[in-house]
């Protein structure tokens, strides 16, 4: 049975959405095409009609994951327009975010994995990271106009590192301690 162009595009977007989440949970090499397509409710045969390769899908899924993360930052900032940086820090450095492997920050979930991928996947992450830095820079500039890019880099590095470390450990108290220490350090960076 033939699928209309509209349905084929909807299927493609569904696969990208599902891959964006499953890659964050399992890593790029931690899940095969069969399981990815099953997660999207499609057959493996449909994959090759929509993507040139798994790497092609990884590029598209990485872009989608970074866009999704940016949307979460935007929502947090909109929820607290008087303290947008505080809102981002509060959601990002939380135990809830620590547990959101499928929907959480793709840099924290896939950063070291993405470093081993091709240049197109890295480019998707680089674009997203630059967007993070731009947003952080604007928020930091509201409180302190000096050295905003360096401070934004320090804030992002601290936040991502804390989430990664909190996910690596089993002890929830230690995980919370990493997140709490990072929260304090980020606030110190911004106010210095």
From TrEMBL:
<dbReference type="InterPro" id="IPR001647">
    <property type="entry name" value="HTH_TetR"/>
</dbReference>
<dbReference type="InterPro" id="IPR036271">
    <property type="entry name" value="Tet_transcr_reg_TetR-rel_C_sf"/>
</dbReference>
<feature type="domain" description="HTH tetR-type">
    <location>
        <begin position="9"/>
        <end position="69"/>
    </location>
</feature>
<dbReference type="InterPro" id="IPR009057">
    <property type="entry name" value="Homeodomain-like_sf"/>
</dbReference>
<keyword id="KW-0804">Transcription</keyword>
<protein>
    <submittedName>
        <fullName>TetR/AcrR family transcriptional regulator</fullName>
    </submittedName>
</protein>
<keyword id="KW-0805">Transcription regulation</keyword>
<keyword id="KW-0238">DNA-binding</keyword>
<feature type="DNA-binding region" description="H-T-H motif">
    <location>
        <begin position="32"/>
        <end position="51"/>
    </location>
</feature>
<dbReference type="Pfam" id="PF00440">
    <property type="entry name" value="TetR_N"/>
</dbReference>
């Amino acid at each position: 049975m033939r699928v209309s162009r509209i349905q084929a595009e909807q299927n493609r977007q569904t696969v990208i959405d599902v891959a964006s989440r499953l890659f964050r949970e399992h890593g790029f090499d931690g899940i095969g095409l069969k399981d990815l397509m099953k997660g999207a409710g499609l057959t493996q045969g449909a994959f090759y009609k929509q993507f040139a390769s798994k790497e092609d899908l990884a590029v598209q899924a990485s872009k989608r994951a970074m866009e999704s993360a940016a949307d979460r930052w935007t929502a947090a900032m909109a929820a607290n327009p008087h303290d947008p940086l505080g809102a981002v820090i509060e959601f990002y450095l939380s135990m809830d975010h620590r547990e959101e492997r499928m929907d959480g920050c793709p840099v924290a979930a896939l950063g070291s994995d993405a470093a081993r991928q091709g240049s197109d996947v890295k480019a998707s992450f680089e674009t997203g990271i630059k967007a993070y830095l731009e947003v952080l820079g604007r928020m930091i500039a509201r409180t302190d106009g000096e050295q905003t890019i360096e401070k934004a880099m320090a804030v992002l590095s601290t936040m991502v590192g804390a989430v990664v470390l909190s996910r690596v450990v089993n002890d929830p108290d230690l995980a919370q301690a990493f997140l709490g220490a990072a929260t304090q350090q980020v606030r110190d960076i911004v106010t210095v």
